[in-house]
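Same chain as my last thread, 87 residues:
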Amino acid sequence: MQPENPLLDVMNRTIYNLRFIEDEAKNEGPYEVTQLVNSFLGALAHPWEKFKIELETISLEEAQDKGWPLVKKIKMKMLIQLIWEIF
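reply #2:
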């Protein structure tokens, strides 16, 4: 069955998995770094693919109006430029 909000479902499962790994961590595993990499892919790469067209066309001003955090002292005008600068 497809969840109503797949991205939110992935993020909730990621948090659940991380808590399990933290509780069960031993020298021979499970491995926190692997979990962090997988979490990164689930939390960033998946939404990036879903929203990349919108991110390429939205200005920083529009992004702020949509709830993105205010970024001060930058020369860029487009959200995608800021994202590329961060990474």
